[in-house]
Amino acid sequence: MNYVKDSESYETFVPRVIKAFEETTSNPKHKVIAIVTHGGLIKVIFREFLQLGELKDLVDCAIIEINIEDHVFWVIAMDGAEINF
Q1: 2-38: per-residue pLDDT in tens?
Q2: Rounded to the nearest 5 degrees, what angle is found at the Cα of 36, between the Cα atoms of 32 and 39?
Q3: How far, in Å, CA of 22 to CA of 8, rounded?
């Protein structure tokens, strides 16, 4: 795999993404959250945090709707992406 010189490693990227996602989604004041991000970040959330496997066919401007209740996450709609089990 080719890396960009002086870029962040996967080992430091993953914990940073998970921490930000947990902080954002655990705030009880937030009833609806929109996260706008690049593909690498959403892939980490699916692969490492939600443990749902690898996203495939992720297109630009994909919309993924995730419901959260009592700290349980589930995908309720995906437009522009599929999960590769």
Answers
A1: 567 888 889 999 999 999 999 999 988 888 899 999 8
A2: 130
A3: 20
Spatial CA neighbour of 50 closest among 74, 82, 17: 74
Integer Cα distance of 82 and 50 in angstroms = 14
How many Å apart are CA 44 and CA 13, to the nearest integer?
9
The label of the residue with tokens 């947990």 reads 22
Domains of the chain, by residue range, sit at: 10-84
Would the pLDDT of 71 be above 90? Answer: no
Contact 18, 48 (CB under 8 A): yes
User: What's the alpha-carbon Rg for the chain, to the nearest Å?
Assistant: 14
What's the token pair of residue 35? Answer: 């996260």
